[in-house]
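Run log, item B.
One chain of 110 residues. Sequence copied directly from the ordering sheet:
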Amino acid sequence: MPETTSAQTTSAGSTRPKVGSATKTAEFSAAVRDEIIASVKQAQKFTLDAVTTWADVVGKVVPELEVPAYVPERSAVLESLGTAYEMAEELWASQRKFAIDLVSALVPAR
């Protein structure tokens, strides 16, 4: 069946893609995803650059700054971050499996 990108109008007046446009939809979704990820990475880089610059300036202006005792060591913070992200990854994987199983139970196979 040839691919099509046109839409058809439903009885409610809305449009939906015709059968065969799934590839075009997937390509569009991938392009949007790639743009979002690139934008987030760029924002992260700008933020990290700004914070690094700020920390360098403050470090030169106030070289004798003492870190309060209640501030944890960097290694402890990094360990906590690792633990939190591992948990989030497990939860995300569990949620993905649940969503796939739910769709499989609700949407009939063709």
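Observations after the first pass:
- The chain has two domains: 17-65, 69-110.
- The longest helix spans residues 22-61.
Flagged for discussion on Thursday.
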